[in-house]
Write a structure and sequence with these properties.
The protein is mainly alpha-helical. The protein is built from five helices and no strands. The chain has a domain of 61 residues.
């Protein structure tokens, strides 16, 4: 029996999702063609330090792109769900623990992330 290839299975699931989303979007907006310029990339997150950098980078990206002035202003981010007390499906405590605590999470997000070691 062949060994299950988890990476291939995940890639196929994402490919199917993006394809379905594109078809639905095109149907609603009466358009044709691709929505995504290049295929997504996968990168193994090998340690907590790298995960912390990625979370910070992702949250800070709208600020770097000039879309908002502060991380908390981007409404499409998980940042607000992580710092608020509102109910969320996110495992808030697990993410905040990566930054030691909520106060440090907020403090870290007040300045741009270090890009060293981050592959985008």
């Amino acid at each position: 029996m062949a060994e299950f290839n988890y990476s291939l299975a995940v890639s196929k699931k994402f490919a199917n999702f993006f394809s379905s989303y594109t078809q639905a979007f095109n149907k609603v907006h009466q358009r044709k063609g691709t929505l995504f310029m290049k295929p997504f990339k996968r990168k193994r997150i090998s340690d907590e330090k790298y995960l912390r950098k990625l979370i910070h980078y992702i949250h800070y990206n709208p600020v770097e792109s000039g879309l908002v002035e502060k991380v908390q202003d981007w409404k499409y981010s998980s940042y607000q769900a992580l710092v608020s007390v509102s109910e969320t499906k996110l495992d808030r405590d697990e993410v905040l623990q990566i930054f030691e605590n909520k106060s440090n999470f907020i403090f870290c997000h007040q300045t741009p992330p270090s890009m060293s070691g981050i592959e985008v």
